[in-house]
Design brief:
alpha/beta, Aspartate Aminotransferase, domain 2, transaminase activity, PyrdxlP-dep_Trfase, pyridoxal phosphate, Aminotransferase, binds pyridoxal-5'-phosphate
Length: 462
C-alpha cells in the first residue's frame, strides 16, 4: 500500500529526527527507527503495515478497559463542546471534577475522602510529599520531612518522584534528593536466602523499616511510600503480612503511609483499589493515575484521609495556605473520561472478570516455569512478570549483554504479541478484558518465543 508506506516513512523520519522518546536508548535509536502504531481495538493494536498485535502491556499498564471505546470518545467530545477547560482554583469547579472526586471517595478505602488532581502518577506522588510536609508543618511538627521508600520501588520521573524511586538503574547520572529520601531493601521473596522462611523474611524487612525510622529519628520521618505490588521494579509481591506490619510500624511512629496505586488501582488486581481489598490496609494516602482514565487522557489523583484534610483546611494563625496546584488540576475533559471509564468498569463487571480470567492468566503463566530458563513467575492477576536465569538452582543471571528480556520480547513481537522487556525480565500487564482464548494465545506465544530465545542464546555462545 503506497499511501500507507508514504505515511509510515514520513512519521518515521520526523520521529527519528525530532521526537525525544521517554525511556529510550538513543545510541541505537537512529538506525533502528520506531514502530508506528496506527489503530487499536479491544485487546489489540495495529501497526502502520496493518499487522495486529495482542497488547500484552496494556499501553503501559494503563489501558484497562481496552481500546476503541466510543463511549469515552463521546463523553470527551461532549465535555469539550460544553466547556473544555476552566481553572478550578479557589471557588471555581466543574461537574466532572466534582463528580469524579466524589466517586473516588466512594471507592477508596476508609476515610480517604479527599482528592487532589494532577496529570499523572509522578505528579500525584510529588503532591503527596507537599501535602505531607504541609500537614506536619501545620501540626507544629516542622522537622517531620524525611521520606522512606524501597529499592526497586518505582514512583515516577519528576525530580521528587524519581528520588523516591528506588530502581538503581534509573539513578545513574541522577542526584537523588538524599537530604529527604532514604531507601530500604526490596522485599523480594524470590531473592531471599534459601533457608529463610517467608515469615522470617517478612519480619526482617519490617524491622528494617523500624530501624530506619529510629536511625533518622521518628520526629524527622514524615512518610513511607510503597506500591502494593512493585511494578517497574519487577512485579515484586511482598511476603504475606508485609503491608499490615509496615503500616503498624508507621502508626507507631506517626509516619504517614502512602500507597502508590498508580498501577494496581482500577482493576489490575481485580479491585478498584488493592490496598484494602487485596492487602488489608487502609493507608493515609493513595496515589493513582493510569487506569483512572484507562490511559485515554492524562489524569492522576492524590486521595487522602479526613485526618489530613481536617488539618490542612483549618484556618491557620499565620495565614498559611496549601499553595499547591496545576493549571490542569481537575481538567474537566480528563475527569469526564475518568468518570465514563469507571462507569464502564462497574457496568461490565471488569473487576469480577479480572478475578476470574486474571486468575486463569496467573495459573497458565506459572506453567512456563517448566522451561529451562524461567526461574520465577510472579505477580497477581493481570500484573505478572517472568524472570529468566542462567541457573535455576543458584538463580544466577544470564549475562546482561545477552539481553534475554529483549530477545524474548522480539520473538513475541514477530508472533503478534507485545510484552515488555526489563533487563532479564518480561512484564505482562495486558488490558483487563482479555478472554480465556486470549490468555491461551499469550501463554503459547510466550512459550514458543522463550524456546526460540533460548536457542538463540546457544547460537550466540551464551
Ligand atoms: N508510580 C508507579 C507505581 C508507576 O508505575 C508509575 C509509572 O509507571 C508512576 C508512579 C509514575 O506515573 P506517571 O508516569 O504517570 O508520571
Amino acid at each position: 500500500n503506497p499511501a500507507a508506506n508514504f505515511v509510515k516513512q514520513e512519521v518515521w523520519e520526523k520521529d527519528r529526527d525530532h521526537f525525544v522518546h521517554p525511556w529510550t536508548d538513543f545510541s541505537t535509536f537512529k538506525e533502528s527507527g520506531s514502530m508506528v502504531f496506527q489503530q487499536a481495538d479491544g485487546v489489540s493494536v495495529q501497526d502502520a503495515d496493518g499487522k495486529r498485535y495482542l497488547d500484552g502491556i496494556g499501553g503501559l499498564w494503563c489501558v484497562n478497559i481496552g481500546y476503541g471505546r466510543d463511549e469515552i470518545a463521546e463523553a470527551v467530545a461532549e465535555q469539550i463542546r460544553a466547556i473544555p477547560y476552566f481553572s478550578t482554583f479557589g471557588h471555581h469547579t466543574t461537574a466532572p471534577a466534582a463528580r469524579l472526586a466524589a466517586k473516588l471517595a466512594e471507592l477508596a478505602p476508609g476515610d480517604l475522602n479527599h482528592v487532589f488532581y494532577g496529570c499523572g502518577g509522578s505528579v500525584a506522588n510529588d503532591t503527596a510529599v507537599r501535602l505531607i510536609h504541609f500537614y506536619f508543618n501545620q501540626l507544629g511538627k516542622t522537622s517531620k520531612k524525611q521520606i522512606i521508600s524501597r529499592i526497586d520501588g518505582y514512583h515516577g520521573s519528576t525530580y521528587m518522584a524519581m528520588s523516591i524511586t528506588g530502581v538503581q538503574f534509573d539513578h545513574i547520572g541522577f542526584d537523588v534528593e538524599r537530604q529527604l529520601v532514604h531507601h530500604i531493601s526490596c522485599p523480594n521473596p524470590y531473592r531471599r536466602p534459601e533457608e529463610q522462611s517467608l515469615e522470617a523474611f517478612c519480619d526482617e524487612k519490617v524491622q528494617e523499616l523500624e530501624d530506619k525510622i529510629l536511625e533518622l529519628g521518628p520526629d524527622n520521618v514524615a512518610a513511607f511510600f510503597a506500591e502494593p505490588i512493585m511494578g517497574a521494579g519487577g512485579v515484586i509481591v511482598p511476603p504475606p503480612g508485609y503491608h499490615q506490619k509496615t503500616l503498624a510500624v508507621c502508626r507507631k511512629y506517626d509516619v504517614l503511609y502512602v500507597s502508590d496505586e498508580v498501577v494496581t488501582a482500577f482493576g489490575r488486581l481485580g479491585h478498584m483499589f488493592a490496598s484494602e481489598d487485596e492487602f488489608g490496609i487502609v493507608p493515609d494516602i493513595i496515589t493513582c493515575a493510569k487506569g483512572l482514565t484507562s490511559g485515554y487522557l492524562p489524569l492522576g489523583a492524590t486521595i487522602f484521609s479526613d485526618r489530613i484534610y481536617d488539618v490542612i483546611s483549618k484556618p491557620q494563625a499565620d495565614g498559611a495556605l496549601f499553595t499547591h496546584g496545576f493549571t490542569y488540576s481537575g481538567h474537566p475533559v480528563s475527569c469526564a473520561a475518568g468518570l465514563k471509564n469507571i462507569e464502564i468498569m462497574e457496568r461490565e463487571g471488569i473487576c469480577d472478570h479480572v478475578q476470574d480470567v486474571g486468575a486463569y492468566f496467573e495459573q497458565r503463566l506459572h506453567e512456563l516455569k517448566a522451561l529451562p530458563i524461567i526461574g520465577d513467575v510472579r505477580g497477581r492477576k493481570f500484573m505478572m512478570c517472568l524472570e529468566s536465569v542462567a541457573d535455576k538452582t543458584t538463580k544466577e543471571l544470564i549475562a546482561p549483554e545477552a539481553k534475554i528480556g529483549n530477545r524474548i520480547a522480539d520473538e513475541c513481537q514477530q508472533r503478534g504479541l507485545i510484552v515488555r522487556p526489563l533487563a532479564h525480565m518480561n512484564i505482562l500487564s495486558p488490558t483487563l478484558i482479555l478472554s480465556r482464548q486470549d490468555v491461551d494465545f499469550v501463554v503459547e506465544t510466550l512459550r514458543e518465543s522463550i524456546e526460540a530465545a533460548t536457542e538463540s542464546l546457544k547460537v550466540d555462545g551464551y
